[in-house]
Specification:
The chain is an alpha+beta fold and 317 residues long. It is built from 8 helices and 16 strands.
Length: 317
Amino acid sequence: MRTFEPPKEPDIVLTSDQCRVLIAWNPRAGGGSRRRTVKRLQETLADKGFSCFTSTDLSEVSELAHLWWEKGDLRILLGSGGDGTVRALAELSPVGTPIAVFPAGTANLLSKYLWHRRRVSAETLADAIAVGHACRFDAGTANGRLFVLMCSCGLDAAVVDKLHRNRKGHIGYGSYLKPLFQTCREYDYPELLIYCSEVAEDPSSVEKPRSTRWAFAFNFPCYAVGSGFARDAEPTDGILDVCAFDKPGFRSGFDFYCRAVLMGRSVEGQKRMQTRRLKITSERPVSFQVDGDPGGSLPVEIEAAPKRLTLLVPPLS
């Protein structure tokens, strides 16, 4: 998985007036030690002179984020969870709110991207918050719902649906094996039609639809454990990288999922496009997912949201 290439200077340097840290903790993400780690982070930030408040209630987090952001003293909205937690925080907070992630989910792809796969400890994160360097990144929307990393429809979205219907507590990589095998056996790969406006053309124009069986729209160059087919996505160019695959069937689906999604290897037979917006339809019921969470059913209209995210980054030299 390609990682963050830091600019010479951060887009934003947080000021000393921004002294409040709002921590949104997802108790379903990570193991039982996560509570102790979050407490250690609070203590470390308090030693650095910051005022911390922790909540597991997203409604409360949203209310406080808006209030403190308007007052000008919110330094960081920090999500202790996985990539889905970051997506939720970005959606419920004011545009421009600096967001940090304390990885506690299954893949933690955004954290791995920003921190070059390094382990992020309470002390490391507290130091970065104290320095206060942030950069602006793109996001995307799927039927108006914000996503950070990617949106997809087809087999993997059906796996996500099955997994979340039966979810009990924390999800690990092993949690995907049973729903993956069951879905690969049952899924019949209905035809998808992609209506894609090209970057070089008027964004309101569309080409003739492209037929496929499985489609991904990437904002960041990462998915699962670092999929090779997402490596060219750039989260600061205002463009989405679309990958589509045509092969149906149990063997091709299972092989692709294991090789590309779980093992991060590049695969043959994929179509690549770049666009600011697209629409995906099907005559059959087909699910889509955003950042590993169920998103709904097709049709879905997907659009880039340039500079929608403000994220804390490691201190830039």
